[in-house]
Write a structure and sequence with these properties.
Shape: globular
Helix content: 25-40%
Radius of gyration: 15 Å
Strand order of the largest sheet: 1-2-3-4-5
Distance between the termini: 31 Å
Oligomer: single chain
Number of helices: 4
Length: 125
């Protein structure tokens, strides 16, 4: 496994743990279809279905490139994220209920030492 993939997986694990602390029930991870992938799918306390894209970086990479994890969410990635979420929601209508669904972004920034900084952006699309 490459360092990049390993870092991404570690970021997704930290994001899932973070969401569980906020009362989310994780129902699926790494859902893939031919035109996209969703990192985490969960339900909020109010039963809203939420799709999460997770963007992870190390502090060194962020400092070097001058970008933040959220800067990695390009227009093309947003389009694929929305299309994949719509597909999943249509296939799992029982999870949508009356609350519908939303698309959120979780950012994970690993420092040189200590716990990662986690950011959360709701309704990004």
């Amino acid at each position: 496994m490459t360092k990049h993939i390993s870092l991404g997986r570690e970021g997704e694990n930290k994001a899932a743990d973070y969401l569980k602390k906020w009362g989310f029930k994780i129902i699926d991870r790494n859902f893939k279809i031919k035109f996209g992938e969703i990192d985490i799918i969960g339900t909020a306390k109010d039963k809203t279905l939420v799709f999460f894209e997770v963007k992870t970086m190390t502090k060194n990479a962020a400092d070097y490139a001058g970008v933040r994890p959220e800067d990695q969410m390009t227009a093309d990635k947003l389009r694929k994220f929305r299309k994949t979420a719509q597909f999943y929601a249509n296939k799992h209508r029982e999870l949508v209920h009356k609350k519908g669904y939303r698309l959120d972004l979780i950012t994970v920034l690993f420092p040189d030492f200590g716990d990662p900084a986690i950011g959360w952006y709701e309704n990004i699309v």
